[in-house]
Amino acid sequence: MFIRTFGWSLTITVAALAGALFLGGPDALVLVAILCVLEISVSFDNAVVNATVLERMSPYWQRLFLTVGVLIAVFGMRLLFPLLLVGVTAQIGPIEVVRLALEGGPADQPGTYAHLLHDAHPSIAAFGGTFLLMLFLDFVFEDRAVTWLGWLERPLARIGKLNQVSSVVALATLVVVAETLAPSPATVMIAGGLGIVTYMLVNGLGELFESEGSEDGAGSAGIHGDALTVENSLAPSSQSSGPSKTAQVTGKAAFFLFLYLEVLDASFSFDGVVGAFAISQDIFIIAAGLGVGAMYIRSLTVYLVRKGTLDEYAYLEHGAHWAIGALAVILLVSIKHEVPEVITGLVGIAFIAAAMISSVVRNRRGGLAAAAEERRHVLINS
Q1: Torsion, CA 204, CA 205, CA 206, CA 209, rounded to 10
Q2: How far apart are CA 296 and CA 38, in angstroms?
Q3: Residue 353's CB: how many other CB atoms inside 10 A?
Q4: Whole-number Cα distances in Å, 317 to 26, 140, 243, 289, 298
Q5: pTM summary value
Q6: Per residue, what are the HEC states of 268-288?
Q7: Average model confidence (pLDDT) for the chain?
Q8: How many CA atoms lie within 13 A of 73 on its CB side?
Q9: pLDDT tens, 14-64?
Q10: Which class for 337: exposed (0-12), middle (13-18), buried (19 or more C-beta within 10 A)?
C-alpha cells in the first residue's frame, strides 16, 4: 500500500531534485529539499483534515484528488496564483509580473516580485485566516460523539446550538484584527470577508447537493459531515483497522467537497509561499520545493483514508482542527507581526502528536468501543 500510495510522490521527488541539481547545482538541490520539508511540516494537519473529507468521497473522486488536484496545487496555487495575486494587488499586467518573477530579488528591495508579494501579505493572511477560522469554529461548535478536550469542547458544542455562531465569532474577530493589527483596515476587512463568504458558499453548496443526493434527504454533511452520523463509525463494529465505512458521496456533492479541499489547500499554501521567499527568491525553486511537498501531503491524505487511521486514532481529527485554529490565529497575527515558519510548523506538529498520544492511551483503556458510551454520556448531560 505504501509504494502504491506514495509512488508518484517519490518519483516526482527524484525528478525535482535531479532537475534542481542539473539546472542550478548543489545550492538549488538543497533549497528544493528544504522547501519540501517546510511544506510537509507546516501542512501535516492539512492532510489529516483532508482525510476526514476524502474518506466520504468515492474512489473516483479520490483518484481525481491525487491527479487533477495535484496539478491545481502545484501549478495553480504554488506558481500561478501568487503571480495573479501580485498583479492584482500591485495593479500591474501579467507580462510585467512574470518579468519581475523571473528577475527575482530580495523581499526587502522595493519593486521586486518578493517585495510585492510581501506587501500583499495582509490580504493573503486575512483571507486564509478567516477561512481556516471558520473551519475550526464549525468543528468545535458541533456536538460530537467523541471529544478530545472534553472540558472545553462540550461547552463549546452547547454554545454552537446558537444559529450562525461561527459566522458571528469569525466576523467579530475580523473586525478586531482589522482595527488593531491591519495597516489598511478596509483591505483586510474585504479580504477577510471574502474568506468567510468562500467558506460558507462551498460548505453550503456541498451540503445542499449532498442532501439532494441522499435517499431520505436528511443528514446533509457539508464539509465536516453530520457529526453524529459520521462519528458513529467509531462504534464497536469499527474496532478493526482499515478504511472507514462512512457513507461516500458522488456527483455534485463530491465536486463541492473536492472544491473545498482545493480552497483549503490554498489557505494553507498562502503563508508557505510568502515565507518561502525568505529561503529563495527563485520562483521556480519555490514552486518545485513546495510542489513536491504538496504531493506528499496528498499522498499522506490518501494513505490515512485507506489505512483507516482516523478510526484507529479517534482524537487525530480533533488535534488537526485545533492545529488549524492555531494556524488561523497565527495568520491573523502575522498581518502586523512576523511569525517564523518554524513556529507555525511546530504548533501543528505538537497538536497532532498530542492527539495521537491521547488516542493511543484511549485505545489501551477501552478501545474504540468506548465511543458509544461517551455518546450516551454526552446525551444524558446535554
Answers
A1: 120
A2: 12
A3: 12
A4: 39, 11, 15, 27, 16
A5: 0.78
A6: HHHHHHHHHCCCCCCHHHHHH
A7: 79
A8: 32
A9: 998 999 888 888 888 888 888 888 777 777 777 888 888 888 888 888 888
A10: exposed
State the amino acid at position 177 in one-letter form: V
* 363/314 Cα distance (integer angstroms): 9
Question: Alpha-carbon torsion 72, 77, 83, 87, what sign?
Answer: positive
- Measured from the Cβ of residue 183, the count of other Cβ atoms closer than 10 Å reads 10
Start-to-end Cα distance in the chain: 42
So what's the pLDDT on residue 215?
Answer: 47
Mean pLDDT of 196-208: 82
Q: What is the mean pLDDT of residues 273-297?
A: 79
CA 221/CA 55 separation, integer angstroms: 13
What does the alpha-carbon distance between residue 275 and residue 78 come to, in Å, rounded to a whole number? 12
Q: What is the pLDDT of residue 218?
A: 44
What are the E-state strand segments in 1-133? Answer: none
Q: Which residues contact 144 (CB under 8 A, 6 or more apart)?
A: 153, 157, 227, 228, 231
Total number of residues shown for the chain: 382
* Backbone dihedral angles phi then psi of residue 215, each to the nearest 5 degrees: -65, -40
3-state SS of 313-353?
Answer: CCCHHHHHHHHHHHHHHHHHHCCCCCCCHHHHHHHHHHHHH
- Please classify residue 70 by burial: count the beta carbons closer than 10 Å to its beta carbon, then call 0-12 exposed, 13-18 middle and 19+ buried: buried
Helix (H, G, I), strand (E, B) or coil at 91: coil
pLDDT of 289 reads 86
Look at residue 153 and tell me whether its pLDDT is greater than 70.
yes
For residues 199 and 222, give the distance between their C-alpha atoms in angstroms, rounded to a whole number: 11
Q: Residue 260 corresponds to which cell in the numbers above? A: 473545498
